[in-house]
Specification:
alpha/beta, eight-stranded mixed beta sheet, 12 helices, 8 strands, about 35% helix, about 15% strand, globular
């Protein structure tokens, strides 16, 4: 979940060993070593062999656990995996300390190249939505469809409730916040996160709340968590400042994959007004708006998100079966795939 209401981190010298990451029933967790980064991958066995692959990318401050409610609802149509981005979940920090959007996208691309699972149905939430957008624009060969839940794309007028999260990008703010909130309990922090990220925090079950508190306590023991948060926030802000062909909105316009956009009417981090702009930017996209949802609709309304994706999958499959390669809803003919990743890195560089 995206929030500044996350735990302060005591000095590394007094940190006890972090507890194991929770693995829900039916899930598996494994580590994959790649050049410069080690990724933790959460998976759920598909209902049968031969189903197309799906990869889920979480947002700032989240982890692959953010997709545990949605994955079982799709187990009969896709072979699901969710990644812990470097420095989050059970993935250690990257060797080079690079938490830019491009670096996160490069890690995703490297995994897809090495695993051979592509092209995949790619999902992204918040920061993960920005990362997924870049992956789809730079490596269209790796993406069958794109599903974005409240993607963190540049906004000119940021909501007041999103400002504290953005301030994490300012050097010195994260350490200051940890000092100010040193006495906060894990329960207090979790309630703050839920209030910020959910349209209705009351939808979280007592078991879900207990699990969130345990995860919060685990994060308290990670000496690098706040650094990963601050650097990833800074990387996202830096991506927002890029214009022209390097901008995220320009890359959104170049995405060729059929795209599903999901926005919550009570989202306090990504403006609901951005829904229509996104629908215009992603060619031939379909838009689902959930008036009562917050920033993490796939956690708050997983059934609705699953249904919307099933419709996208059905229509995309029907179109392919009919041999229709056109895009009737697109504004203009498809262009060539983008080869610039947004910060001067080329597509060849992104291949790892």
């Amino acid at each position: 979940m995206s929030s500044t209401d996350l735990p302060s981190v005591p000095p590394a010298s007094v940190l006890p060993e972090a507890a194991a990451v929770r693995v829900a029933e039916g899930e598996r967790l494994r580590s994959v070593e790649l050049p410069g980064v080690t990724l933790s991958i959460r998976s759920r066995p598909p209902a049968r062999e031969g189903l197309p692959s799906a990869l889920f990318v979480h947002g700032l401050g989240g982890s692959s656990l953010n997709w545990s409610a949605l994955m079982p609802l799709l187990h009969d149509v896709v072979d699901s995996e969710a990644v812990d981005l470097p420095g989050f979940g059970d993935s250690p920090p990257p060797d080079d300390g690079d938490y830019s959007v491009t670096a996160h996208a490069r890690a995703v691309i490297r995994y897809l190249d090495v695993s051979g699972r592509g092209p995949v149905h790619l999902f992204g939430n918040s920061l993960g939505g920005a990362i997924a957008t870049r992956v789809a624009a730079v490596r269209p060969d790796l993406v069958r469809t794109l599903t974005l839940v409240s993607p963190a794309l540049p906004e000119l007028r940021v909501q007041r409730s999103a400002v504290p999260t953005g301030l994490l990008a300012v050097p010195g703010v994260a350490p200051l916040f940890t000092r100010i909130t040193r006495e906060w309990t894990a329960e207090q922090r979790v309630r703050g996160v839920l209030k910020l990220c959910y349209g209705d925090p009351g939808r979280v079950s007592s078991e879900g709340f207990r699990n969130a508190v345990q995860e919060m306590e685990r994060r308290l023991r990670l000496p690098y968590f706040w650094d990963a948060m601050a650097r990833s926030a800074r990387g996202l802000v830096n991506a927002y400042t890029l214009g022209g062909q390097q901008g995220l909105w320009r890359q959104a316009e170049r995405v060729l994959a059929p795209t599903l956009l999901v926005y919550g009417g009570r989202d306090q981090l990504v403006g609901f007004r951005m829904a229509q702009r996104s629908a215009r930017a992603f060619r031939g996209s379909r838009l689902v708006t959930l008036p009562d949802a917050g920033h993490v609709a796939m956690m708050e309304y997983p059934g609705t998100v699953a249904h919307a994706f099933r419709e996208l999958l059905r229509d995309t499959t029907d179109s392919a079966d009919e041999g229709d390669t056109g895009e009737p809803d697109a504004q203009g003919a498809p262009g060539s795939p983008v080869t610039d990743t947004g910060d001067g890195t080329t597509a060849d560089d992104m291949r790892g």
